[in-house]
Structure formats: structure tokens, C-alpha cells
Amino acid sequence: MSEKEKICITTDCVCDLPDEMLKDNNIDLVYFYIETDTGRFRDRSEITAQNIFEYLKNGGKKSVTGPPSTEEFIEFFTKKLKKCDEVIHIATGSKISTAVAGLKDAVEKMGSLGERVHIFDSGHLSTGIGHLVLRAAEMVRNGEKDSGKILDELEGMRDRVSTTFMADSADYLYSNGKVSKAVQVICSIFNIHPVLEMKNGYLGLKSIQIGNYEKSALRYIRKELKAHKIKTDRLFITHAGCTANDIKLIRKEVNRVMKFDSVIVTKASATVSGNSGPRTFGVLFVKDE
Predict the structure, then answer these.
(1) What long-range pairs does 75-78 form, CB within 8 A, spacing at least 24?
(2) Do 25 and 142 lie in a common domain?
């Protein structure tokens, strides 16, 4: 980079944006870690969702996710500030991750240098974060040089982002303490698929779909897309361990219900996937209301 940029946009690997999209928008990531019985691995580069599923299926017990250390955050931002005047870091929601606390600690320890780093609590995860990241990158690309205006835009947009997922079962949610054993058993007996939602910064149970997975997936898509007035420029289909046939079915139904300028299929990070399990997917969009 020959000329120093005014503002750099960065985010967590949990944003689940594809590498090509990150590169095209000049977005750098900080990487979370997954600790298992066999070691500590960096998400995306050293471990994937499929690795987690296979590990747990083969008897693995420990799967703990977490953000980088304060020292790693400091190193990351110090390096970025050599390339730009300010950094806006769009972070995983503080009510579901300790990342924001670690980021703020790092910025404080950076002293005057840290004054050039702005931490934005997305209140979301996965490509819910991704929508905010891409909007910030778009503003920078269009010549916005006021970090305050970008942060104000993100603040106004945050509550309009819809982050929901349908899980195949409640097994992983139970193992990660998200639901009780009783709920897990009931879901298993009655073939119930939990639908999870990010709301007010928390990830919780929104609704359920009962019966055949494929029919439940179609009902979930219809319900989500018809419940809101939606910006039709971009929709993410983000999944963990869905089959090619699953994705074909999901994409076809999305296109049948609503026309988007761009429908992007992305794979969920190991951090996200390890909490929801295989055959989890979401349709993530921005509400126009």
C-alpha cells in the first residue's frame, strides 16, 4: 500500500464473510480460537466447522471457543495503524462473546495510539456482522473520511439486521448450555428444529419448526422473508454442515419467495458452528423499516 488510508475496517472471523469478499473490500480479520482435547486451533485457518463435527462425533468432549488475547489485539491494531489513520473494528456482540471486553482493554492499554481505534459492538454474529462490515467498507470506498459518520450509520443499522438460524436439532445447543436437557429430549422425540434469533444482543430461541427437516426449512424461510419489509440488495444464506441438496433447496425457496440482487452462500466459522451443530442454516438480511 503506497498511500496511507484514512480509515481501515476490521472485524472478527466470526463474521463468516468469504475470503474473496474480504479481500475485495480490504477487510482484515482477528481470529478466534477453539480449544479441544487435542489442542488450541485458530478458526478458519487451522480448524473448520466440519473438523468440529467430526471431532465431537468421534467422542471428543471439550470444545471451547474464545477471542484472541489482549496482546494479540494490540499487535493487530498496531500493525493496522501503520497503514491507516483510524481503525473501525466491528466486533461480535458483547452479550454473547468476551471479544468486546478484550478489545476495549487492548485499546486502553495502547494509550494515545488506541484513541485511533474505534470498537463497534455489532450486537450480532455470523453474517449479521457481515452486513454491517460491508456497509462500513462501502462508505469508506465511496470516500467517507469521518469515522463518526460511519459509526452513526452502523448504530442506526444495527437493529435492522436480522440474524436468525434454524438448527437441525437441540443436541449442540444442550451441550453448550443454551437449552436444558428437557428441551433437548423433547426436540429429539418430536423432531423439533429450534429457530434461534439475535435480539437485543442476545442469542435466544425465537420459534420452532416441527417435522421433516426439508419442509421445516422451507417454512422457516417463508416465515422470515414474509415477516418484514426487506432491503433486496443482499441476502446471506449461511450454513454449518448443510448438504449440497440442502443448499439447492434453500436457495431455490429464497429465490421463489423474494428476488434479491445478490444471494450469497457462506460457510459458518467453527466458532459459530460448534454451538449449533450440523445442518444449521440461516437467512440473514437487512430490514428496510
Answers:
(1) 76/10, 76/28, 76/30, 77/106, 77/107, 77/110, 77/113, 77/114, 77/117, 78/110, 78/113
(2) yes
Per-residue pLDDT of 6-59, as tens digits, reads 999 999 999 999 999 999 999 999 999 999 999 999 999 999 989 988 988 888
| Domain boundary pick from 128, 158, 188 | 158
Report pLDDT for 3. 66
Instruction: Kindly state the cell numbers that stand for 213.
Output: 427437516
Structural domain of residue 279, as residue ranges?
Answer: 161-286
CA 44 to chain centre: 13
Long-range contacts of 107-113 (CB under 8 A, 24+ apart): 107/73, 107/77, 109/70, 109/74, 110/74, 110/77, 110/78, 113/77, 113/78, 113/81
pLDDT tops 70 at residue 2: no
Residue positions counted in the chain? 289
- Kindly state whether residue 46 falls inside one of the protein's structural domains: no
pTM of the model: 0.94
CATH number of the domain within which 280 lies: 3.30.1180.10
Q: Return d(Cα 75, Cα 27) in angstroms, integer.
A: 17
